[in-house]
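Changelog-linked ticket: S-adenosylmethionine example.
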Amino acid sequence: MFPLDSSKKLSFNRLISEGDLVITYERHDNMKAVKVCEGSTLQNRFGVFKHSDWIGKPFGTKVFSNKGGFIYLLAPTPELWTLVLSHRTQILYIADISFVIMFLELVPGCVVLESGTGSGSLSTSLARAVAPTGHVYTFDFHEQRAASAREDFEKTGLSSLVTVGVRDIQGEGFPNEFSGMADAVFLDLPQPWLAIPSVAKMLRHDGIVCSFSPCIEQVQRSCETLRSNFTDIRTFEVLLRTYEVREVKMDSYQGKEEGDDGVSVGAPPCKRRQRSNDSSNLLENQRSSIPMARPCMEAKGHTGYLTFARLRCLS
Ligand SMILES: C[S@@+](CC[C@H](N)C(=O)[O-])C[C@H]1O[C@@H](n2cnc3c(N)ncnc32)[C@H](O)[C@@H]1O
């Protein structure tokens, strides 16, 4: 997941080996994490794929099944892992994650504290942001979830960058051994305000905390608590709009257009179809393609609010 070669240098040219985790890509909404195992096969609607055909190929390779169907073998990045991991809890998705990494000002070498670990979706991106010299210490009070997250970090090759602890962070706070050591703290807890006094102890001078909460009442309570030790308190809601951009065929002068898949789609909201008396032009217009762009229907709406604050320096 974090492609380091034996000399700890970044290397993106690694070939697929026995035991590697690969993301098998059919479409952007149909991917799977698969551990490569010489004698195994992957079976899907396109046929049977032998893992032995994958070994020695570069990540990104298109491989074929016994029936001529194909998939791509992608390297397991945090972006893809977030889309294929097993959901043991609600998770953070790419729009919120990107915003968190940027606003927590994470760079290689940073020390980050996190709670709760949940399914490890955010932890995976935190780990890559601080690698190769930083570390993520993540805590969850649910033993089984912590154990599953640990297993996942082993699988994705991140275990040297992430340590998972079992602890009630709302009740006990973060362990004292991290006092003044954290560059950033991230909270995804039901009552984050209970953990904020401990966060203030853990952060280095001017370190940053981020708290993710689905409800605005949680945000209001957190902000109230943050005011005693923190400054620059800001809350964001990250809304992502995905667009579908493609060519559509006009199947009648007045009415509908036909998409690549032959399905009629609504008219685009742009300037188009000027009236003409020339009948050949009219025919041409009837079947010509026009570009269309429209927001995807299944775009995600509200996920939660992200509240950031910087520890106030005393002098
Ligand atoms: C929504 S999940 C976190 C998801 C995570 N951010 C991700 O992206 O995968 C919230 C987690 O907080 C944990 N949790 C709740 N209360 C806690 C507490 N007092 N101390 C530690 N963990 C807690 C839950 O067990 C749960 O796993």
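Closing comment: Example verified and attached. The longest strand covers residues 203-213. The first helix runs from residue 78 to 84.
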